[in-house]
């Protein structure tokens, strides 16, 4: 069994027992189940509300789980000194970082899968059919969270969990408002100076466009079509993998020189 | 023991470790030879754990060189032959003792029946076989320490770094671990032992260094370090004039006359002792008793730490 996989498994086992993450999971599951309450609304709007709320709750709970998990994965090992017994064994620092990330990702996946399964069953109950669009929505949330988790882990190798929490959330919010930073960068009326537009351009390019991963709208409103949806989804997945790879490479490079 | 033809297991040359303006380790040099138990002593904050972490490649020297089993510290090949028991070890709490020791075994590539056999052997060795399936969150500090020792032995290491191995153990377990350390040495392993249990160190270590404020203040074999005690000689029927008594006082550190018996205190070296005995016989005296008062490692440790800022290395 590879070292990365061993560390990932240890991380996954530990993370799945963390009470704070379980709180987010159970609250989210409760809210999803509560969407039953919307049956009293007009039937035509009922499913739209359920889908919107369900995916929104999964996404939000997932972000909290990813950030809280990501900011603590490595600092916890240092604080509790488990890292001493692991890194004194024949374990490369890169294997340690990648194992921690993989374990975290497995935890996020399990949480999303649990919430997603509950949500899908609810939709099946309502629509009497499996809704593939909802499944795509959940998949996109997972890849969005992969980037969020990688960001949190990247910052965790050189920032305290407290600072990291706010920074990762700030970047998530900025990335979710990408259309705003894009329009600020374009400045069609030339009201701003080059430095300001340059700054917003940089923010728009460097920070991932998290809003792209929220494909709830086309699901909720089937009349809106994304051209070549399959290609769009593949592009988003490839982008998430590339962005995550870059972040992990940087995290490993910094952690190689980090004293523990 | 020491360097009688044995290769160097650890080489530290002019090691300096600074944290901003704080100098944790200040230009220390020492060698540890294969097959010896080396006691690494010092008060809290002396730089012991910093040195050990440098030797394990967990932190990096500010300057100087450290080599472990002939290779630079942190080398992945060396880690196969080295093990570390940190002070108050902590493990994944959701795992059982069996799972934790197995986990560390897997990091060394152990698998299947070989892993099960090794884990069973070690759990038995540290007396945890009965509790091996309980999650570690239910373990006491002493039990966690035993898990730590088991994980440190999983790879059948050549060189062991033990940081307070008997911390939190009850007297019986304490003795078991001390005996285990001696057994490991007898199997040919090298042990780098950091401990505040000075009686244990005195009993099991071949050589000792005492670190204080980042510098080595004493270095040598236990015998050398604790040498230099006193001997008390009691004699009676001595016939000596003032001139002869003057000669005796020159040989000794203290002479007193109690109930017509001379109580003479001198250093425990054979020369001093024999000079005094010769003087007693030359002056027609009878020797009633010769009692050596031995210094302990604790005395040496206390003196060394009290010496404070003295920067010279005293090599016995």
Structural description of this entry:
The complex is a heterodimer of chains A (260) and B (316). Helix content of chain A is 78%, strand content 0%. Chain A is mostly helical. The longest helix of chain A has 37 residues, at 43-79. The two termini of chain A are 26 Å apart. By secondary structure, chain B is of the alpha/beta class. Chain B has two domains: 8-225, 3-Layer(aba) Sandwich (Rossmann fold); 230-293, Alpha-Beta Plaits. Helix content of chain B is 35%, strand content 29%. Chain B has helices at 48-55, 76-79, 97-107, 112-125, 141-152, 171-186, 198-204, 222-226, 242-251, 270-282, 297-307; strands at residues 8-19, 22-33, 37-41, 63-68, 71-72, 82-85, 159-163, 190-194, 207-212, 215-221, 230-236, 254-258, 261-267, 286-293, 314-315. A seven-stranded mixed beta sheet of chain B has the order 6-7-8-3-9-10-15, sandwiched between helices. Chain B has a four-stranded antiparallel beta sheet with strand order 2-1-4-5, with helices on one face. Chain B has a four-stranded antiparallel beta sheet with strand order 12-13-11-14, with helices on one face. In chain B, strand 1 and strand 2 (22-33) form a beta hairpin. The two termini of chain B are 15 Å apart. At the A-B interface, helix 1 and helix 4 of A face helix 2, strand 6 and helix 3 of B.
């Amino acid at each position: 069994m590879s070292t990365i996989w061993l560390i990932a498994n240890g991380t996954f086992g530990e993370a799945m027992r963390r009470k704070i993450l379980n709180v987010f999971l159970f609250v989210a599951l409760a809210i999803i189940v509560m969407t039953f309450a919307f049956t009293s609304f007009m039937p035509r709007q009922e499913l739209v509300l359920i889908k919107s709320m369900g995916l929104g709750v999964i996404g939000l709970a997932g972000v909290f789980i990813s950030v809280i998990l990501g900011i603590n994965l490595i600092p916890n090992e240092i604080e509790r000194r488990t890292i001493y017994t692991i890194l004194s064994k024949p374990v490369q620092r890169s294997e340690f970082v990648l194992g921690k990330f993989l374990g975290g990702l497995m935890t996020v996946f399990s949480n999303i899968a649990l919430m997603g399964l509950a949500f899908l069953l609810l939709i099946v109950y309502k629509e009497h059919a499996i809704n593939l669009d909802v499944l795509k929505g959940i998949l996109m949330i997972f890849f969005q969270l992969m980037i969020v988790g990688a960001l949190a882990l990247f910052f965790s190798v050189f920032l305290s969990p407290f600072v990291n929490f706010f920074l990762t959330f700030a970047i998530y919010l900025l990335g979710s408002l990408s259309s705003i930073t894009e329009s600020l960068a374009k400045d069609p009326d030339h009201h701003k100076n080059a430095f300001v537009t340059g700054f917003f351009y940089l923010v728009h390019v460097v920070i991932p466009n998290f809003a792209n991963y929220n494909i709830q709208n086309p699901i909720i409103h089937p009349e809106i079509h994304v051209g070549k949806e399959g290609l769009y989804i593949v592009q988003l997945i490839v982008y998430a993998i590339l962005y995550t790879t870059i972040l992990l490479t940087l995290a490993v490079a910094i952690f190689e020189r980090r004293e523990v | 023991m020491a360097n009688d033809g044995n290769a160097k297991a650890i080489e530290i040359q002019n090691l300096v470790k600074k944290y901003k303006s704080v100098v944790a380790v200040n230009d220390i040099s020492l060698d540890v030879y294969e097959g010896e138990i080396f006691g690494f002593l010092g008060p809290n904050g002396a730089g012991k754990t910093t040195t050990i972490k440098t030797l394990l490649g967990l932190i990096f020297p500010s300057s100087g060189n450290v080599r472990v089993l002939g290779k630079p510290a942190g080398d992945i090949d060396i880690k196969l032959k080295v093990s570390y028991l940190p002070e108050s070890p902590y493990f994944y709490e959701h795992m059982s003792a069996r799972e934790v020791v197995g986990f560390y075994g897997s990091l060394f590539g152990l698998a299947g029946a070989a892993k099960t056999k090794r884990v069973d052997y070690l759990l038995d060795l540290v007396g945890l076989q009965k509790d091996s399936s309980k999650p570690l969150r239910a373990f006491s500090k002493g039990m966690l320490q035993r898990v730590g020792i088991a994980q440190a032995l999983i790879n059948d290491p050549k060189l062991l770094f033990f940081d307070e191995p008997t911390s939190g153990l009850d007297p019986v377990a304490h003795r078991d671990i001390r005996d285990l350390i001696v057994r490991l040495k007898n199997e040919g392993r090298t042990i780098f032992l950091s401990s505040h249990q000075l009686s244990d160190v005195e009993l099991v270590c071949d050589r000792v260094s005492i670190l204080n404020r980042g510098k080595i203040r004493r270095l040598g074999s236990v015998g050398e370090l604790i040498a230099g005690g006193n001997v008390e000689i009691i004699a009676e029927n001595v016939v000596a004039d003032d001139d002869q008594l003057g000669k005796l006082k020159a040989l000794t550190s203290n002479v007193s006359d109690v109930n017509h018996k001379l109580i003479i205190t001198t250093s425990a070296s054979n020369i001093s002792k024999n000079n005094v005995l010769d003087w007693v016989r030359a002056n027609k005296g009878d020797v009633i008793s010769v009692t050596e008062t031995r210094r302990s490692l604790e005395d040496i440790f206390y003196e060394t730490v009290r010496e404070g800022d003295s920067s010279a290395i005293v090599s016995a």
